[in-house]
Every structure is written in C-alpha cells, then in structure tokens.
Amino acid sequence: MTVLKINSFTGMIPRLPPERLPDGAATYAENCDFAYGELRSLRGVGPKRTTSIVVKSLFTYDGDHYFCWPSPTRAYLAPTIDDTWGRVYYCSESGGLRVAQKSTMKLATDNPGPPSVSYKVGVKPATSGGYAATKALESTVVFAQVVSADGVVLKEVDVTSLLTNVVYWERYAVTPPSTLFDDVSDGTARVPDGDGWVQGTVNVEFTYDAGGSKSEPLLANAWWINSAGEVKAELSGGGTVTRSTVSSITHNGVTYSPSSDLFAALVNGKTRTSVVRFRAKITFADTGVVFYDGVIPNSETSPGTFTLSVPESVKGSVVSVACVATTVNEVGEESAPYGPAFVEWRNNGTEAIEFSVNYTPDADQIPIAGVNFYRTYPGNSSTDYFLVNAAPVPLTGGVATLQDSSKTPQNTSVLQSTQWDEPPPSLKYLTYAGNGIFAGAVGKDLCLSEPFRPHAWPYRMQFPHEIKGIIEVEGGILVATATQPWFVYGAHPMQMTQQVLNAEQAGVNWRAMARLEGSAFYASRDGIVRVSGGQASIKESQQLFTRETWRNLYEVFFPNMVFAAWDGKLMAALDGYTAGPNAALFSLEDGAAYNTVLNIPGSTVTGFGISATTDQVGVLYTDGFAEFGSGEYLPLAWQSKAHEFPLPVGFAAGVVRYTGAFSLEIYADETLVHTVALPTGGGELSFRLPSIRPAKRWAVKFIGTGTVKRIELGASFAELKNG
Length: 723
Hints:
Shape: rod-shaped
CATH superfamily of the domain at 438-633: YVTN repeat-like/Quinoprotein amine dehydrogenase
CATH topology of the domain at 438-633: Methylamine Dehydrogenase, Chain H
Helix content: under 10%
C-alpha cells in the first residue's frame, strides 16, 4: 500500500533539491502562513493611503499622523522627557540630520509628505566679535580735610582733579592747594605757668646750636617753650634739659624762626593745631548707592605732598577671569562655547565685566532665543564656568551684551557644552542607541551624540573600513562595515568600546538591516547574518541558503533589498521590483518551517515603514502606503516537495480537507497530470484521478485563498481509508 500524505505544511529550503526536502516542505511557497502547521493564506495590506510622492520611508508616532519621504530615511522622536516642541529627528540617505515638529505631521488621509518646515540640526556657535572688558561702576571723589586736634573737620576741599600717579584702587599722589589752611584758625590762647613756660601739645621738630646745628624731634606734652625761645625737653631717663640756642622750630607744619615766634603764637592763640587728612567717597554711578565713605590712609612723602592708599577692607584683589558665550535656540538647545576671553577684574564689586558677542544666525537652523554668558570665579573652590544670566540674552542688531559684577557664583549651572559640536553635515544611518544617545556614520567614523542632546555630536569612533550601515541591537550598536561587523557597547559614548564580531561578513546595504526580538539581522553577500549577545552568525541562514543559492536568488537585488520585522519574523522587500514576487517572509529560527515569498498586490513596492509605538508595518508604494497584515487574505501558491518512490506508483483517488477556494494541481514526474477545482466553502472532499501511468515522483500544488489542513493520494479510496 502506497499513500502520499501531507498534513503538516512548511516553507521553502532553497539550498536543497526538490527530492531532498523533508516531508511537508515546499519547492515553492507564496503568500503562505505556516504559523499553525497547516497551510493558510497570509492577510494582505489594509486600506491604501494615497500620496502624491513616491514613498520610500514613513514615520508615525501614533498610527494616525505621518511624515513620508521619497528617499530612504530614518526618523525618531526626541528622547528628552520635557520636549514640548515635539521634535522629530530624521536623516535621509543623502546625508544630513534635520529636525521637524510632530505637530506638522498629517493624517494618513491628507496626502502626507516630508515635513513642510524643517531645520538643520545643531546650534551654530558665535565665531567672531566676542570680548570681555571691565567697566567701572563707581564714581570716586577725594577730599582733603583740615581737622582739629579733637577731630572736628574745620575745612574740606575736593582734590579729585589734583590726583596724580593714580594706580587704580591701589594708591594716589596729591598735593593739596597751598590755600588749604587759609582762613582756618583753630589755636587756643595759652597761659604760661609761673616760670613763664608754655607746654607743647603736638609733636615738633626743632634745631639748636650744640657746637654745630642739630635737629631733634620732641613728642607732644614732653616739651615747653618760653618767651626767649628757649626749649625745655623731657629726658627719656627722667629730668629735663634746656636748649637756649634754638634757631627754629616746626609746629604742625609751620616753621617758626626765631623760636620765640612760636611762644608768641601760642600765647596769642595763633598756632595751627589742626592736621590734614583725606576722605574718599565712592558711589555707584547708576544707583547713587554709596559703596564707601570714609578716611583713607595717607603719608606725607615730601613737604605738602601726600600718598593716599585704598583701605585693605574695600580695595579687593585683581584677578584674571575667563569668559565664554554660548548660543541657545528656541527649544533650549545650546551651542559649543565661543571663547574664552580673559580680563583682569577687581573683585570688590565696583567693576563690572562687560560681555559682548557678535552673532549671525544660520537661517536653516531653529531660531535663536539668545546668548548665555559664563565666567570663572578665581578663588572659588571650583574652576568651572558658571552661568551669569538667568535667561538667554537677546540679540540686538546681531550683538548680545551683558554686565556682571557678582563676586561669587549666582547659581549652580555650569558650562556643559564645551565639546558640543554640531552634527557632521554628511551624517548617515541615523540610529537610536538607547540611553538618550543617537548614532550615525560618516565614512569610517561612527558618530555619537551627547546623551539626551540630539543637537550635540562630540564623540567619534573610527573603524578600519567604511561603514555600510548601523542599527541598534540589545546591549549596543551593530556596525556593518565593508569587511566585517562590529559590536559597539557602553552606557555613555565616552565609555563605549568596539568589538569585532566573529563573522567575516560585510554588509551590502544599510536598508537591509532589521532588529527583531533583541537580535539584529543584516544581509551579507553570503546570506543573512544574525547578531545577538555580542556574537554574529550565519548558521541559521545556511539552513535555508548556501552561498550560491543566496547569490543566485538575490545578488542582483542587494542594492535594493529592504528588511523589516513583522510578527516575530523577518521581512525582505525588493525596492522597485515588478517582475515577480516582490518580498519574502521567513523565520531563521524555524528554518523551512517559515519561508515564503510574498507577492504584494498594488503599485510598485518600495519598502517597509515601521512604527515601534503602534507595532505596525507599512508597505510602501510609489504612490502611497498601507498597513501589512490588516487586509483581505492573499491568494497563496504552495507546491510540495517531489515525493520519490522506489518503484513507479499510480494514484487514482484523493482526499483533501480545506476551507476557502483552491485549485489543486497534481504532478507526476514533473508533469502536470490533473487539476481539481475545489469548490468554494470547504470541508473534506474526495476526488478521483484519471488513468495516469505510474510514476516515481509525485507532487501537489495548491493555488487559492483559505486553509488546507491535509491532502492524501492513494491507489483507491479503500486504501486511503485504511491509510
């Protein structure tokens, strides 16, 4: 008894000859769903959304609103949590990273297309005109005062205009006017004691004859003078000595010669008992607030000329301050800094640092909100640049200017954008790598963004050969180069490491890459490479394809192959192909259990568009797009293996269990010998075959829509019943 029985259906194994296929495998499978072990039609596309452009990429965040592009493009939402602007970053095949607002996306029914308004990603830094300079905030007036012995100011004269040898906030020289003491009478008539002596109350210098002229200072209250001009001085060891040959004596800056004139002046109240001192008044010019008002130290460096010094408590120190400026756009993205500019600044609060920068915006970038200024604070425990302004300083006539006189940081915001370069203009293969990081490639360089700062791209990693494509994979990034794949991993771009993978398989096309259940797949010249857990392998692909069969089937399509993931399986489309099946669907894990070509009806297929948010796969056309797997069932075609028998056999009866509508073709030794039209509806149908000569090789083929559960062929119905 010989029976041909098929009750488990699987897909194609192109590497095996038809007679070497396992039972249930197909020599040809089109639009077949093998997920249930039986033969079923796949669902096709849902309602088609028409566009006025060729669609080769699409992006949606909610399944309702779309961007579509006529060239292969990858797009992502901004990874920042507080993105109220709604940024969508995208990069086309031609290169260059751009950003648009998701609020400009159109409904699927409104002919969506590329963003109507988009901007080049990045914030251009200032490149010229920046400077920092000090600016005095105060107005200083210096007065010379005549002060009595008991501290009463008898006269005050403004000597600001007479200041010379000015060392700002250090010292000044001044010669008060000769009339300073005019009209000042502060002496008191003194009464001699019983011996005719008047005691002195100020320090004096007198000259007398002691076998030669000799000068001697005398301390206040330690000397006396009489009408003859004799001077009695108190000795340090006790007692007194009288000098009768005094020629002159200097008292409060006035020299009396003969010395008896001093006695007369004391008795008549005509001596100068006052002294000169100096007062400085420092006022903030714009507010009128007094910064300092008080006596300042002085020393008489020569008769009538004084050196004035600023009190240590108010003069502060001169320090070197570094200043930089960054540009901020309307969504808060900040540029790399311009500068630094250095300035010598007195840190006592009476000087402001005036920052200024010239800026010409890039009209192709998001509009500029203003400029941030940062500075250092010498003496502070941190060497960071601290933010000076609370909000970006707006540009006026292309210039932003700010004054700052703070002595300590006013907040904890420090400069972060030191290395925040704009993205390379020719960036390709945009990929989100997790942790807020975007990746892209330029030639041999893998470029990486600052985490959660998609506008800043300070990091680069070089590879030995040109990068052909990149895609995110569990734990890192898969980088397919012109020779072999690499795995890049790390939590931060500064910590990322590159690891060459154990597969000498070059990538053929960046669109022929997909991520599926934690693994990444890409097309090589020898088959499909799977990367998972830092390992690369082509073994699963080799269950289906030898190098020769893979190249025979697909080499001509390598430049136009597009991968996507759908329902746990890998999809491949052939962009622009119209001469036959335009896609394929398979699971490398299941081998032949799931390998079918797809013949997606409608206009020319250009690829797939995936929405991770809505778990949708869109089929892209030259005039629109539609969701795959949500439409009517597709007509399938499935041809069995060649069932080979040791001796020629003849079949005269058959039974098939099915639902739907099918045409059944029966082949003997590769020749079509009978066709059965299975009635629409289904059930279990028995049928007779015409008289057919015995054959060694038998095969069956189903064409239609529905489900086939089993088929049996035998020499008679009795044999089938017993079989």
